[in-house]
Amino acid sequence: MARESAREPLEGLVPAPAAEAADTVVLVVSELGTNALRHGGDTCTLGLTAHPGCIEVAVHDPSPQAPRMRAPDLNGGTGGFGLPLANRLARATAVTRRASGGKTVTVLLAR
Q: Rounded to whole angstroms, what are the CA distances from 35 to 29, 46, 91?
């Protein structure tokens, strides 16, 4: 559902992002959304903002605990790929605590 929610607004942008850039945004949305639901609680909110040179992906969840980088689990299937992948693809990443509780993970991606 998160992938579909991200793809539709990207298709409406003028100028539209290149297909590879749009696929990257959708992948990062999926990974960060999965992390937020798995580690941050049962709900999360996705925000997409188009800037002239980049797309900002922001995922809010109710947990105040900052995400941690860990080595991806190549054999046990327990994950560990989302945040390293987002960091590798991003121009910038940030984690901020929200005054109302929880946190926001923000990633800036090439448009």
A: 10, 12, 20
